[in-house]
């Protein structure tokens, strides 16, 4: 298992004192001190204060009390991490590094691991969390201890495991918007040496908004998930854990809402949905109901063997299948666009993801009093067959018949074959009728091999005068092979002859076949000095590498160059005031070459053009501070602060929202057409964005968490605790152009809860409210080139409810 937290307490800004900790203390002095936290972040058990890694850990209870059901819910309790989403993709950023694309196919800058296995698809990172023992957030490049390299950091989700004791729990949560969340788990021994655990969860909720056309909800939830685990202890030194999980979603969550026209005041580029937009920001008007349908399952086998007292072996094999379909109308409007109705192309989009991935990681771990080392080998393969289409839809309530389509000179067999439909068929319960105006059926494959390792040497073995000083040496060799094919069909409408279409564009698989191979070596070196048992200083230099990726865009032969990062970090971890306070701080500076970025621009035969490219260079400087304090026996508080100055050093690119860059109408002419917004007018072309902020990264973010044990006698020898949270993020830009319209304003959010727990810990109840001020917070914006508008997604409004749980 990669970088595993062993026994978790309240880690700094993010965790609660009620997390799992070392054995309870018995004296008054001990009970007023900060709980010790035992981790295995360097492949051996250590106090978190002795580990030279910037890591935040969230316990099961902290996640439950904060009503964290998915990674995006971590927004308010992990200040150094920023989460967004669009097109049903998670946008996770750490220290200014993350997912900068909205087309499927590329790897994310921040890796997600579930029980040690890498989850490749950004879409799959939006699935729910359940029966979780802890979540770990590691910041900075990760590669010398990981199977899959990560340039920005890693989020590790560790599920609860089978034990030799029969145990389980059940929990129900009721909330506004008719929310109902149920979660159950049970596990224990089957016979000597064999244990099991089964867990399941359901999530249902009405929408935060509605579709005034269909009357259906938008941004609702309907999810089901289950996980089963079977552990075999063959001998005291050899065990095998088998795990399988399934996730199902069918709802209208993550809807993109109308924000503003992309080109206000430019007549020739008026948005395609004028007159049909919803008036409430959380509503979405559309003649076709938006929706997301997902099926995902995964199997993991983890073999562990102690070869000797100092040498152990771990092998993690994983298979994951992910299928998802996203339906939406890209004009975000009730206007029904269709050539035969208004001369405009249909804007109904469907994106289907079909991904199978397999990985295997072999680790050897060597651990003595003075040397701790890890050596690993890794294999990863993912095959994707995404289909992205924008299509014809029903005509005046009736499907376009094959006869009408044939009259319109649409090559039916070719369109049906590419898009995977038959004549007159529908999908997703909406009126999406084939063939498609634009259809891309991509074949994308990534195969990766890696050898990695890291060793920590205690220099005290050389001389007693060097006691407390240690060095870290690590490295990773990566070899990746990327293949891309983007066959498609583009059916172009002829406005001068409505019943005739221009010749189609039909790039083929062979014509778009592209392959590239990438190799890189990324080192890591560091030194740490344990000045005394309560003070640790460290410095780490690390590099990260993310291979180039293809894109799913019709006719594309693009495989961008890799991203590489070089990072310097210094840190201090201190325990103060007779162990009543821990303060951990880190400062870092990095340079990132070849940042992979995606955008779309209006125009062209499809109505949009995808741009996938490398920015030349970005850099960042930042400081992170986390603390946990227990000033009295009944009051605890923690906090975190993150300051990040991440900017482009060099990026020459085209602006999708500059009208001069969008073809259409009469081209610019200084004499006959001096319109400054005409295609080709001065002010178009490439812009140099050096100095601009990177995406999805606030300059300043902080969080505060407090807990107060209330002095009231409660039934069943129980206790009552008041919890409060405050979190703040400064302005966040969602594009590299630093436009306010493509950003989230600075915000501060407050949460509160009242928690009851019985004396034996079996019963736990909570009254809670999140986003008390009902702040309307954007989680992302995206320039929708097809609809010529800017879309937006939002974080949840004010939610409140009650949670009841029983544990045995």
CATH architecture: Beta Barrel
Strand count: 45
Main sheet, how many strands, which sense, barrel?
Answer: 22 strands, antiparallel, barrel
CATH class: Mainly Beta
How many domains, as an integer? 1
* Annotated CATH topology: Maltoporin, Chain A
CATH superfamily: TonB-dependent receptor, beta-barrel domain
Structural class: mainly beta
Query: Can you give the mean pLDDT?
Result: 86
- Uncertain residue ranges: 1-31, 393-410, 422-435
Residue share in helix? under 10%
Kindly, what is the distance between the CA atoms of the first and last residues, rounded to a whole number of angstroms?
27 Å
Form type: globular
Features:
disordered N terminus, 6 helices, five-stranded mixed sheet, 22-stranded antiparallel beta barrel, mainly beta, Beta-barrel_TonB, 45 strands, 4% helix, tonb box, Maltoporin, Chain A, cell outer membrane, Plug_dom, 808 residues
């Amino acid at each position: 298992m990669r970088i595993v937290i062993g026994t978790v307490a309240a880690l700094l800004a993010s965790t609660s004192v009620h997390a799992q900790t070392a054995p309870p203390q018995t004296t008054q002095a001990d009970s007023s001190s900060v709980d010790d936290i035992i981790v295995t972040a360097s492949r051996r058990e250590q106090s978190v204060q002795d580990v030279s890694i910037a890591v935040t850990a969230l316990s099961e209870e902290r996640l439950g009390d904060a009503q964290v059901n998915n990674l995006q819910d971590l927004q308010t309790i992990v200040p150094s991490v920023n989460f967004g989403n669009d097109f049903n993709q998670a946008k996770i950023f750490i220290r200014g590094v993350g997912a900068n694309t909205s087309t499927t196919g590329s790897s994310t800058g921040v890796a997600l691991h579930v029980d040690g296995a890498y989850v490749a698809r950004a879409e799959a990172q939006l699935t729910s969390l359940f029966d979780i023992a802890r979540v770990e957030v590691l910041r900075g490049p990760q590669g010398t201890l990981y199977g899959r390299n990560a340039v920005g950091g890693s989020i590790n989700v560790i599920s609860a495991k089978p034990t030799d004791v029969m145990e389980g729990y059940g929990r129900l949560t009721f909330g506004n918007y008719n929310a109902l969340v149920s979660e159950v788990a049970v596990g224990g021994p089957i016979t000597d040496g064999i244990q099991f655990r089964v867990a399941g969860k359901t999530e249902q909720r009405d929408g935060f908004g509605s579709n005034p056309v269909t009357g259906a909800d938008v941004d609702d939830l309907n999810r089901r998930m289950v996980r089963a685990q079977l552990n075999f202890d063959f001998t005291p030194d050899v065990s095998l854990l088998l795990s399988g999980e399934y996730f199902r979603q069918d709802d209208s969550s993550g809807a993109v809402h109308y924000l503003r026209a992309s080109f206000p005041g430019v007549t020739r580029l008026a948005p395609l949905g004028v007159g049909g937009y919803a008036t409430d920001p959380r509503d979405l008007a559309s003649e076709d109901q938006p929706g997301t349908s997902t099926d995902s399952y995964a199997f993991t086998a983890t073999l562990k063997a102690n070869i000797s007292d100092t040498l152990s072996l771990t092998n993690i094999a994983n298979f994951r299948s992910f299928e998802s379909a996203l339906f939406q109308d890209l004009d975000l409007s009730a206007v029904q666009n269709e050539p035969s109705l208004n001369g405009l192309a249909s804007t109904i989009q469907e994106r289907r993801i079909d991904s199978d991935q397999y990985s295997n990681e072999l680790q050897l771990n060597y651990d003595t009093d003075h040397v701790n080392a890890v050596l690993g080998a890794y294999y990863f393969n993912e095959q994707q067959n995404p289909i992205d289409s924008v299509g014809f839809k029903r005509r005046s309530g009736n499907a376009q018949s094959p006869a009408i389509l044939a009259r319109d000179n649409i090559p039916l067999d070719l369109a049906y074959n590419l898009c995977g439909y038959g004549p007159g068929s529908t999908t997703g319960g909406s009126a999406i009728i084939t063939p498609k105006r634009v259809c891309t059926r991509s074949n994308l494959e990534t195969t990766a091999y890696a050898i990695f390792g890291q060793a920590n040497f205690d220099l005290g073995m050389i001389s007693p005068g060097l006691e407390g000083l240690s060095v870290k040496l690590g490295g990773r060799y990566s070899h990746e092979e990327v293949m891309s094919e983007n066959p498609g069909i583009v059916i172009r409408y002829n406005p001068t002859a409505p019943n005739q279409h221009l010749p189609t564009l039909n790039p083929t698989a062979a014509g778009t076949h592209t392959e590239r191979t990438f190799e890189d070596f990324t080192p890591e070196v560091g030194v740490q000095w344990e000045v005394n048992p309560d003070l640790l200083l460290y410095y780490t230099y690390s590099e990260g590498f993310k291979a180039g990726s293809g894109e799913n865009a019709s006719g594309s032969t693009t495989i961008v160059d890799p991203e590489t990062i070089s990072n310097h970090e210094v840190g201090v971890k201190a325990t103060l005031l007779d162990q009543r306070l821990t303060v951990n701080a880190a400062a870092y500076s990095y340079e990132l070459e070849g940042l992979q970025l995606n955008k779309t621009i209006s125009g062209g035969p499809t109505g949009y053009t995808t741009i996938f490219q490398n920015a030349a260079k970005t850099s960042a400087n930042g400081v992170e501070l986390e603390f946990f304090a227990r000033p009295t026996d009944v009051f605890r508080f923690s906090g975190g602060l993150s300051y990040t100055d991440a900017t482009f050093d060099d990026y020459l690119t085209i602006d999708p929202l500059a009208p001069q860059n969008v073809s259409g109408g009469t081209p610019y002419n200084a004499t006959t057409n001096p319109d400054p917004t005409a295609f080709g007018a001065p002010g178009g072309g490439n812009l140099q964005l050096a100095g601009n902020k990177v995406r999805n990264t606030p300059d300043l973010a902080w969080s505060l968490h407090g807990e107060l044990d209330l002095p009231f006698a409660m039934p069943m020898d129980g206790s009552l605790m008041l919890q409060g949270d405050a979190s703040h993020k400064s302005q966040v830009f969602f594009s590299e152009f630093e436009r306010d319209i493509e950003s989230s304003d600075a915000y501060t959010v407050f949460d509160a809860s009242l928690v009851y727990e019985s004396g034996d810990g079996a019963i736990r109840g909570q009254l809670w409210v999140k986003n008390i001020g009902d702040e309307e917070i954007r989680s992302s914006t995206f320039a929708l080139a097809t609809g010529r508008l800017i879309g937006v997604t939002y974080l949840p409004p004010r939610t409140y409810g009650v949670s009841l749980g029983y544990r045995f």
